[in-house]
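To: structure desk
From: M.T.
Subject: fold request, one chain
Message: Could you run this one when you get a chance? Sequence is below, nothing fancy, just the single chain.
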Amino acid sequence: MAALGWLTPRRRSATARSVLAGEAAAEAARKSSLQLEREREEAAAEAEAPETAPPAEPEFPVVGDVEAAAFFDLDNTVMQGAALFHFGRGLYKRQFFQRRELARFAWQQAWFRLAGVEDPEHMQDARDSALSIVKGHRVSELMSIGEEIYDEYMADRIWPGTRGLAQAHLDAGQKVWLVTAAPVETATIIARRLGLTGALGTVAESVDGVYTGKLVGEPLHGPAKAEAVRALAAAEGLDLSRCAAYSDSHNDIPMLSLVGHPYAINPDTKLRKYAKAREWRLRDYRTGRKAAKVGIPAAAGLGAIAGGTAAAVALHRRRH
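Reply: Done. Structure tokens follow.
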């Protein structure tokens, strides 16, 4: 019988194998238990979590960022209509020119309001008219009159939404400039009334404080605005990638492209398309009726402005 002992499985070796198997099973069970626990926790977290929301926009403007500033176009961005046309109305009221010039200013303003865009040819015509009108007048005289014209024709045409954007930059401790093709004197008056830092505008030549009827350089329009912003940024030590610019017109794409934070405000069709393609931020503060003004029949617009012009001419005749 003893000879058959080697055929009988040894209890010791069996026990050793059992121990090994048991330990392996226990380790596997422990690992799987931990894995299941993690899976249950993740499932519970997903069930309790709200729908995934897009990441919030970083705070802008950044408070205390002194290397940032904001640049705002004026016409149809900060103010409804064109500053130069409103200025012309005020000068007509003060008998700076005759009713034929009033009719031309009225048509230009009607076109601007109906189309909602700046046409270089119309704007150039308006600037030439204004230059011929102010020729020979003192700069101080026009500045004084400009203050009155702002109260009469411009103060009620400031877009509250755009004004709020400018104030946000001011509250953040940043400088805010208007950048416009309007005369720098007019732009400076508006900037001061709105509490802004200052204005970049078209400079009319003057000698001994009297307008000559010529410009210094060219109108501050299109690429010229971008050059003015670039020059001012260099002088002020600004980082343009941290600056913001606001405009309604595709003519200002050079200026908008210059900064890190471009905004399309009350944009014309071309700027809206361009801005959407580049994921620029858009704001439209016009009412539905004003935003759809491009679709107003031309005859209706001309009729309205013709009525206004006729009334102005009739008033002029009664006074004389």
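Reply (cont.): The mean pLDDT is 76. Let me know if you need anything else for the meeting.
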